[in-house]
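Human: We require from you a standard protein entry with sequence in single-letter code and fold as tokens, and nothing else.

Assistant:
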Amino acid sequence: MAAPMELICWGGDWGLPSLHPESLVVMAYAKFSGAPLIVNTVNNSWRAPKGDLPVLVSKDVVISQPAKILNFLRRQKYNADYDLSAKQGADTLAYVALLEEKLLPALLHTFWIEAENYCSVTKPWYASKIAFPLSMYLPGKMSREALNRILLTKGGPPLYSLTEVEAQIYRDAKECLNLLSKRLGTSQFFFGDTPTTLDAFVFGFLAPIYKVCFPRVQLQEHLKQLPNLCRFCDDILTCYFRLTVSDPALIVSLQMDNNLRKSPQHPPRKLATLKLAAGGEESSPMSRLSP
């Protein structure tokens, strides 16, 4: 009998199972591949076994970082990509790299650096999930880490001021959204009618931008001008995620149909319809994701 697998992550709001993009990536992949995860939310990342969220725990195995978690699930025969060709696998790596280079900085800025968004939405929301006195410290720590990550990747020449960096990251993000919209076209998913790793990453990055109610919404406004990407997010939320509140912590069950749990290699279901720690190392998605 397979060992139970528990995913520990930040909770959700605004109709999302989690507000945390990396947690959404793993949760979506689990849905697509049929991995029987039990998802539990925690009040702060310091309570996670490795300090970072999301974290997957299976027996004595503890794994953090989405790419490593997805690779672990593949080794357990929960593979959302087994129908992809070699070219499609290479395209997946390229698009994930594009998301992390072009879209993630603007996503981090929207949540953690844009002053009005941070003060009126992000900081109060995370503080409400964290026990005092950590609620007074941890949101600020996460904001500083987000800024460090942005400046590390975007703050070099010829962009010297924060204003120049901000303008560039939003230009890059809008260009990335346009490319994703063009690539998706009228298809249900990025490689046809079956969701894969790429769909999980795109959903995880887009859904918070699309759903969270911020006062400053330039990236959200651009996304809403691309109806196929909005439909993509809505369809996944509607058809793959079912939230059940069984206790105050909100346990989200990602249990799939019985036939998927019994047959890990069963094809994924078709729709009926940043952290940068101080001194941490950032590896490229090309080396972290295995085909």
Remarks:
- Confidence is low (pLDDT under 50) at residues 244-291.
- The first strand starts at residue 5 and ends at 9.
